[in-house]
Amino acid sequence: MPTRPRNRHRRAPSQALGLCLVLAVASVGCASAQARSDAAPPASSADSLLNDPLDPGADSAAAVAGDSPAQQDAGEQAETTTGIAAPDEDTADAQVRTAAERDFDALYGPYDPVADPNLPAAAQMPGVYDPWERYNRSMHRFNNAVDRSVARPLARFYVAVTPRPVRLGVSNFFSNLGQPVTAVNALLQGKPGQAGQAMGRFVLNTTLGIAGIFDPASDANLDRRSEDFGQTLGVWGWERSRYVELPLFGPRTVRDVLGMVGDAPLSPLRQVEEDKIRIPLQGLQLVDVRTQLLSTDSLREGAADDYALVRDAWMQRRNYQILGDRMNEETDDALPDYLRDDDNPLVPASAMPVMPTDN
Question: Which of 54, 75, 240, 358 has the lowest CB atom count within 10 Å?
Answer without folding.
Answer: 358
